[in-house]
């Protein structure tokens, strides 16, 4: 229903009932008003509530003359739920609401429609009609939104929960802080596009993909150990998955199968950096002495066992033996002396060791790629057989018009097959979904968020019969992508703080995230890694396949040189083609030793309108595992500076100019903390070149390490940078464990 003044409701008779249920002030009496009406408690009458009759809906409703609130159900003091407002009387204008929220800090903004729904209030699933979706204009296709039957929870379906008939429903879950704003409409305009040809997700296929991806991880572990005697570099497999999808043209949304070249620069660099041994961050003198000895011994052993040239063998042996002799006779050296010696030894022996290991490491990369391609073939064949058994065939081509429309979620060309039963139960604040013994978990607040995103974005499941199975596939996909290790992958999916998003929206009209996921997005419109699973929850698809003609965007890409470079190329192409207002605000790590190609290109771009830096330890990010982590682990400190670059065409600059006042508001938003600043992030793994939110590659994000041998970082600097014993192989250690957002 639309927002209207109470006195001028079109099609409604404002029949006010007295506390005893009788009509007052000569209002026309509806036939049903002759029936006895329940009395309103004195507390409600004193609070301004009265009972009215809706002629349009032919049913009574309750209206508050003090607050302009209206409800279908009898109100309960202190528990008003906006989502059940039948007449939309309490909907505030966007401008007024934004002005009222300006002074509120993180987690304290006024709750709006989507927030109240995610709180799980008593009427959160009782509205008979939903009109939030793609903004309708003369050039915008109307996208139907899936309504819910009044009073029905979306998981009370054939695929629903184990809840027995007659059991009381669980108490409403009311999180204290909301980390998203799903009421903000998009200003991103695109050309109308055909439905995507991805195969529709299914739990059985997702389970097979998870099992084969786990096997592929095991193969990688075995190859590294057998061929090079090392453990796989931490997170290197995850970054390989992401980096490959920048250029992969294969059919699988996760595993690569059609890449050129087949040898991943990311995987190759990271394995090479751990040869002959993995270098650790050093805290004490004895650790430095031990590491120096181990490196000399491993280099000598490796050069003896490989097919090295006489000159290489001679150089490595001489340097290794000289180092060992120095260690035996000098016991008064400081930690700095040991670190200097190790740096010298790496420079002397590193190129020769790398030369003899090159073929072997390339073999590891090639082997993993070919196994992945075989697994993709198996998964796709199983998927096609499943669709064939369900009589699902190729659809007719879509009839497209050459017109501009507001962006809308990815639609799949093929209809979804019938979905199997997925069980749902709640353990305190955690929603647990189980399929064939495989359980995925998500915080209840984020589960409610997924329900809202699904309601706004999905058009083929009005009764929510496929909701649970699609949530299971979504969470399982990201779980498999990030790995099952402790804290593994948490840095691959982080987000900007809520106050920063609020400032971006208010000051620069940002309504869209270029790199996000349904789990960590702030807006309901975003690009993400997996269009097949994420499209039902609002994803516009991978960013490198997304071509807006106008709009204001936030981009916080995964911290991978290959992806960031491709992102800059895509930005400049879009800005060059469009004469409509187009703006990109990019958040990237400020790496200047050496300077990354992407940052260098942005700083010299003809579209750069402004640039600023947010210093290290003076800002923070939301955890990549925010959908499941504890509240106290939600925010963590940024250990490296962040560069913020504004790329805009002329029209975009005129509309969203980064003026001094706007920039000051954005910087001030960073000072509003989600919690008291404490130690660095939850995973705090210096080896992780943690990206921002996942999403938006040509098919997916990528976060390969910046650990090229020729970009070796100073061991002097790194020795005091951290207190743990993680890898310091090279500039990887310069990468922050936090991410700046999906």
Automatic annotation (TrEMBL):
<dbReference type="Pfam" id="PF12237">
    <property type="entry name" value="PCIF1_WW"/>
</dbReference>
<dbReference type="InterPro" id="IPR029048">
    <property type="entry name" value="HSP70_C_sf"/>
</dbReference>
<feature type="compositionally biased region" description="Polar residues">
    <location>
        <begin position="19"/>
        <end position="35"/>
    </location>
</feature>
<feature type="region of interest" description="Disordered">
    <location>
        <begin position="1"/>
        <end position="39"/>
    </location>
</feature>
<keyword id="KW-0808">Transferase</keyword>
<protein>
    <recommendedName>
        <fullName>mRNA (2'-O-methyladenosine-N(6)-)-methyltransferase</fullName>
        <ecNumber>2.1.1.62</ecNumber>
    </recommendedName>
</protein>
<dbReference type="InterPro" id="IPR036020">
    <property type="entry name" value="WW_dom_sf"/>
</dbReference>
<dbReference type="InterPro" id="IPR039881">
    <property type="entry name" value="PCIF1-like"/>
</dbReference>
<dbReference type="GO" id="GO:0005634">
    <property type="term" value="C:nucleus"/>
</dbReference>
<dbReference type="GO" id="GO:0006397">
    <property type="term" value="P:mRNA processing"/>
</dbReference>
<dbReference type="GO" id="GO:1904047">
    <property type="term" value="F:S-adenosyl-L-methionine binding"/>
</dbReference>
<feature type="compositionally biased region" description="Low complexity">
    <location>
        <begin position="132"/>
        <end position="143"/>
    </location>
</feature>
<dbReference type="GO" id="GO:0099122">
    <property type="term" value="F:RNA polymerase II C-terminal domain binding"/>
</dbReference>
<dbReference type="InterPro" id="IPR022035">
    <property type="entry name" value="PCIF1_WW"/>
</dbReference>
<dbReference type="GO" id="GO:0016422">
    <property type="term" value="F:mRNA (2'-O-methyladenosine-N6-)-methyltransferase activity"/>
</dbReference>
<dbReference type="InterPro" id="IPR001202">
    <property type="entry name" value="WW_dom"/>
</dbReference>
<feature type="region of interest" description="Disordered">
    <location>
        <begin position="94"/>
        <end position="170"/>
    </location>
</feature>
<dbReference type="Pfam" id="PF00397">
    <property type="entry name" value="WW"/>
</dbReference>
<comment type="similarity">
    <text>Belongs to the CAPAM family.</text>
</comment>
<feature type="compositionally biased region" description="Low complexity">
    <location>
        <begin position="678"/>
        <end position="693"/>
    </location>
</feature>
<feature type="compositionally biased region" description="Polar residues">
    <location>
        <begin position="714"/>
        <end position="730"/>
    </location>
</feature>
<feature type="region of interest" description="Disordered">
    <location>
        <begin position="676"/>
        <end position="742"/>
    </location>
</feature>
<keyword id="KW-0539">Nucleus</keyword>
<feature type="domain" description="WW">
    <location>
        <begin position="43"/>
        <end position="77"/>
    </location>
</feature>
<keyword id="KW-0489">Methyltransferase</keyword>
<dbReference type="GO" id="GO:0032259">
    <property type="term" value="P:methylation"/>
</dbReference>
